[in-house]
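Minutes, structural biology subgroup

Action item carried over from last meeting: produce the structure token record for Class I SAM-dependent methyltransferase (Winogradskyella maritima). EB confirmed the sequence was re-checked against the source entry. Recorded below for completeness.
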Amino acid sequence: MKTLIYIFLGLAILTPLVIKFLQHRHLYPFMPFKYNFRRRRVTFAKVLRLLNERQAKSIIETGTSRKGLDGTKSDGAATIVFGKWAKRNGAKMHSVDISEDSVKGSRAAVEENGLSDVVTVYLEDSLTFLERFNEQVDFLYLDSYDYSKTDTEIQHKSQVHHLEEFKLIENQLHQDSIVLIDDCGLPGGGKGKLVVEYMLERNWKILIDRYQILLVRK
Ligand SMILES: C[S@@+](CC[C@H](N)C(=O)[O-])C[C@H]1O[C@@H](n2cnc3c(N)ncnc32)[C@H](O)[C@@H]1O
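Output recorded by EB:
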């Protein structure tokens, strides 16, 4: 009887810990083990591999990491993750955001993580920024206009905005460019609905289709 009680207690203590461990989607060793990237882990890990293989030099992100590394589970913290990759690999990252608060949070995180020499955070509408940007882009990450799970008008505006972003920069993408779109696995098709349809008609193919959609050239 005593043994059974010990086994029961052991399981009651261990099971939640094991579940927590299995749900912990880390990017270790690239990022410290404590950060959980949840639904973005697989796509972020694949992008990091592709950036290495393709020796990317120029990264653009629309919608910046307003919460810095506190946002690994929610927003993604891409500015810091890919900024860190840029720092280690002699690349440059440009992150643009329309909100003063988001830019303030992101700039503080960039500074805190020692990335100020490689990551520039711009306070601007992504559309005017992309229209002006005239260099080649090796990795494009689209994650701006916040999506809504319930409001179909916001869903449509967000989808149109991400399509417009892509159209403004597509001529600076090349055969080895990588495109990642966030918040896709959501009701109504997510941020990527229109832009992915557009890309699939133009010689792009989907590499990973999960919460985020990752595309490369055919
Ligand atoms: C989900 S957050 C970005 C998260 C970030 N990419 C990360 O990985 O942590 C979306 C951001 O897009 C910004 N945004 C919304 N509309 C925008 C626009 N038209 N141009 C640029 N940024 C915009 C918001 O201010 C917000 O900070």
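Discussion: Strands lie at 58-62, 92-97, 119-123, 137-142, 173-181, 204-209, 213-217.
Next step: EB to file the record with the rest of the batch.
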